[in-house]
């Protein structure tokens, strides 16, 4: 093999390794979207067949994150990437961790399902959970499309949608607090639904974190301005407990 041919082979091999890293991130994103969609279907429609699928997805997600970590470390050690390539490798590590946490949150929501499914028909929660689900799935889809197309323009919108998710989550949280205050027999089911809602809200946070990492990956710059937060569920819970103590 001549010197030029060897160099071309090395460059082609390096490009293939970077592409393989992208493919694994894309697969993690696909799983995160499917897993989230299944968790929402479980909570809204009581589709218990999705529980096992959510947990299978979580296993694949963990395996992919591990593979990406090994792949990225190997690339850094052996290829010594620079500039944009180094940014791609480092942000792949970060994004893989964030997507894995999305898998954890969907699994956490699914684990609560057996404690709430029997109560769903009598609680006004299906519609708000479905709206939160639509938002977070849209956020994940936009982020993964932006990564695939290297289109930073849509990532600011993802952060704006996170504010809407926070608002929906806080509204649902307050509804559940009101139900618990008026009917103590509903406290176990409502408590589990609070954890479900919080897990979904956290998925929105992770989608926003991914958007910020993706923006840096594509542009080499930080997303402008701080993100706004509208989740007041923690202070609402403190106020609720204080009211119980006074009663």
Protein topology:
Elements: H1 3-45, H2 50-79, H3 83-116, H4 126-149, H5 155-182, H6 187-219, H7 233-246
CA distance, first residue to last residue? 85 Å
Question: What is the CATH first-level class name?
Answer: Mainly Alpha
Could you say what the CATH topology is called? Methane Monooxygenase Hydroxylase, Chain G, domain 1
- Write out the CATH superfamily name: Phosphate transport system protein phou homolog 2, domain 2
**How is the biggest beta sheet arranged?**
none
Name given to the CATH architecture: Up-down Bundle
Q: What portion of the residues fall into strands of 2 or more residues? A: under 5%
Mean pLDDT: 85
Provide the structure class: mainly alpha
Tell me the domain tally.
1
The helix fraction, in percent, is: over 70%
Gross geometry: elongated
Number of helices: 7
Radius of gyration (CA) equals 21 Å
- Low-confidence segments, ≥5 residues, pLDDT <50? 3-10
- Please provide the ordered H/E string of secondary-structure elements: HHHHHHH
**Would you report the number of β strands?**
0
In short:
The chain has a single domain, classed as Methane Monooxygenase Hydroxylase, Chain G, domain 1 (Up-down Bundle), CATH 1.20.58.220. It is about 85% helix and about 0% strand. The protein is built from 7 helices and no strands.
3D structure, described in words:
Helices cover 83% and strands 0% of the residues. The chain has helices at residues 3-45, 50-79, 83-116, 126-149, 155-182, 187-219, 233-246. It contains 7 helices and no strands. The radius of gyration is 21 Å and the shape is elongated. Belongs to the PhoU family. Residues 25-112, 129-213 form the PhoU domain. One of its GO terms (biological process) is intracellular phosphate ion homeostasis.
């Amino acid at each position: 093999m001549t010197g030029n041919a060897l160099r071309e082979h090395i460059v082609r091999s390096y490009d293939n390794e970077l592409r393989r890293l992208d493919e694994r991130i894309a697969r993690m994103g696909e799983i995160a979207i499917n897993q989230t969609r299944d968790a929402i279907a479980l909570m809204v429609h009581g589709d218990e067949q999705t529980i096992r699928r959510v947990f299978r997805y979580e296993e694949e997600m963990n395996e992919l994150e591990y593979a990406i970590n090994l792949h990225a470390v190997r690339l850094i050690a052996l290829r010594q990437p620079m500039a944009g390539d180094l940014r791609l490798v480092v942000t792949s590590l970060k994004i893989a961790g964030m997507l894995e946490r999305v898998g954890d949150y969907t699994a956490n929501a699914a684990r609560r399902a057996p404690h709430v499914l029997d109560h769903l028909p009598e609680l006004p929660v299906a519609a708000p959970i479905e709206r939160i689900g639509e938002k977070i799935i849209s956020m994940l889809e936009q982020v993964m499309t932006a990564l695939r197309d290297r289109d930073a323009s849509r990532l600011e919108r993802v952060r704006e949608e996170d504010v809407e998710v926070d608002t929906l989550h806080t509204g649902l949280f307050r509804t559940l607090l009101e139900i618990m205050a008026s009917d103590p027999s509903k406290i176990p089911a409502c408590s589990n639904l609070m954890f479900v809602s919080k897990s979904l809200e956290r998925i929105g946070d992770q989608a926003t974190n991914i958007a910020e990492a993706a923006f840096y990956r594509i542009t080499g710059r930080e997303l402008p301005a701080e993100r706004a937060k509208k989740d007041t569920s923690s202070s609402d819970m403190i106020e609720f407990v204080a009211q119980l103590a006074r009663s």
